[in-house]
Amino acid sequence: MAEKRPFGEFFMHLTGKVFDLFLPRRAAAVARKEARHVLRDPYTLGLSIGMPLIMILLFGFAISFDVKDIRLSVLDQDHSRASRELVESLRSSGFFLPQDSRGEPEADIASERVRASLVIPAGFQRSVGRGESPQVQLLVDGSDNSTAGVAQAYLVGAASAAWARISGLDNLRITVRQPLGVITRYLFNGELNSRWFIVPGLLAIIVGLLSVLMTALTVSREWEQGSMELLLSTPAKPLEIILGKVAPYVGLGMLTMFIVYLTTRGVFNVPFRGSHLVFASACMLFLFSALAQGLLISVVARNQELAFQMAIMLGMLPLLLLSGFIFPIEGMPVFFRVFTSILPPRWFMQILRAVFLRGAGFADLLLPFSVLAVMSVGLTAAAVKGFKTDLEP
Q1: CA distance 330 to 324
Q2: CA distance linking residue 134 with residue 118, whole number of Å
Q3: Domains detected in the chain
Q4: How far is the CA of 59 from the CAs of 52, 262, 283, 388, in angstroms?
Q5: What is the pLDDT of residues 105-140, one digit of tens each?
Q6: How far apart are CA 379 and CA 314, in angstroms?
Q7: What are the Cα distances from residue 78, in Å, to 6, 118, 121, 124, 134?
Q8: CA 234 to CA 32: how far, in whole Å?
Q9: pTM confidence score
Q10: Per-residue pLDDT averaged across 315-337, rounded?
Q11: Are 311 and 294 in contact (CB under 8 A)?
């Protein structure tokens, strides 16, 4: 029978194996060296602190899913008090800018003078007075897909308000049977303010992209400047170099997160209904995954120009297109819905919106937290595995 080793001896053996792979003191030395470089580099500091502030202010005010002031031509063939009340209701809704049609609704749209055209037929007021359901025609520019559906939905809502105004006219006796009423109440974002939906997502876009960019240039810069030879001549192992280089950027990234968070709350008045511990934990996990992704790019590229191009391609496109920031993941084809599950931004975006608007906790977000943790470890392991200790390109 094999002789059993005492637990203490086994523990010391396992500890020795761990320290053969990773020695905190050597990683701390690499981290101090990288921190000094960051503090002496105004470009890096400006990129990591000033740029996020500029981007959150610029994109936060510029990007909106709300469609307002839709230019609408009106061809009023009835010229009645009821038709004027309908047009006035559209004007006061804030969504439409009605103007008189030049006689040809389709030509108004084709000339891009308006985005939609409303035709009120003759006999509109007479139909209303008889208790009938009057009909109007809405022509919408279908080439502008973002406006077409919204204009129709807004017109239905504005028509309901117009109906209430028309019903109060003294010279009309309206006995229209009311259809089934549906009362809708929107939870967590009662006014459907798109800025509450967009700005938390911008935090993931901005910090994620900058984190990938900053670390993608670190190791490649060492190779280009020849300082990698000094690092490789030290006893530091790949894992120690990788973690040492990541550590200063984690602190810098958390500072950036804090600045963007304050801007989100103070400038855009986005509510925060969740736990700051949950928020900070999610930020830390996402930062590790983004920084590890940048290091993996840097390790593979060994060239700053190539590393920058790869960071833009692999960092920006998934963040903007496949994270759920602009396009709902549920509306994507099955392949892309599955593909987005291997992208850290998708899960961080889900956490951000749930924490900010719904007040979700750890129990509600167990899946995205678990996926982010696995991805952070996996990307770090891939960067360590791909790190070359030889000086050959």
Answers
A1: 9
A2: 14
A3: 26-63+193-386 (no CATH), 70-167 (3.40.1710.10)
A4: 10, 16, 20, 39
A5: 888 888 878 888 888 888 888 877 776 777 888 888
A6: 14
A7: 98, 12, 6, 6, 12
A8: 15
A9: 0.76
A10: 83
A11: yes
Query: pLDDT tens digit string along 211-250?
Result: 888 888 777 777 777 666 666 666 667 777 777 878 888 8
Q: How far apart are CA 145 and CA 29, in angstroms?
A: 55
Residues 36-93 pLDDT 10s: 877 787 777 777 778 888 888 888 888 777 777 788 888 888 888 888 888 888 888 7
Q: Answer with the residue of higher pLDDT: 16 or 271.
A: 271
Helix 366-386 to helix 238-266 angle (10° resolution) is 140
Three-class DSSP labels, the chain: CCCCCCHHHHHHHHHHHHHHHCCHHHHHHHHHHHHHHHHHCHHHHHHHHHHHHHHHHHHHHHCCCCCCCEEEEEEECCCCHHHHHHHHHHHHCCCEEEEECCCCHHHHHHCCCCCEEEEECCCHHHHHHCCCCCCCEEEECCCCHHHHHHHHHHHHHHHHHHHHHHHCCCCCCCCCCCCCCCCCCCCCCCCCCHHHHHHHHHHHHHHHHHHHHHHHCHHHHHHHHCCHHHHHHCCCCHHHHHHHHHHHHHHHHHHHHHHHHHHHHHCCCCCCCCCHHHHHHHHHHHHHHHHHHHHHHHHHHCCHHHHHHHHHHHHHHHHHHCCCCCCCHHHCCHHHHHHHHHCHHHHHHHHHHHHHHHCCCCHHHHHHHHHHHHHHHHHHHHHHHHCCCCCCC
